[in-house]
Amino acid sequence: xxxxxESGGGLVQPGGSLRLSCAAxxxxxxxxxxxxxxxxxxxxxxxxxxxxxxSSTNYADSVKGxxxxxxxxxxxxxxxxxxSLIPEDTAVxxxxxxxxxxxxxxxxxxxxxxxxxxxxx
Length: 121
Fold this sequence. Notes:
By secondary structure, the chain is mainly beta. It has strands spanning 2-7, 10-12, 18-26, 30-39, 46-52, 57-59, 67-72, 77-82, 91-100, 108-111, 115-119.
């Protein structure tokens, strides 16, 4: 059984910062990619940022220059540092991981339970 546990959401004023953390636990052979998605009320879930095993990154245009994603392969952890937050960043943020539980199974897609981020004065 694999679990993704997120932490770090909350309420912050515009211009502030938050740090989201996600730890993957359980029977894991290899994590290929970890990332963060978000879903605002009435909108579709969208990719915020992702990072591959070789540390190559991908960001949504709306967060480039403000958010930074990083990972610790040894701890199966991914961090999203969010700076210069704006009200449009308000959403539920979900951790995502593409991983292999064993060498004998294909890559699977796992999600965290979500953490709320509210940017408001």
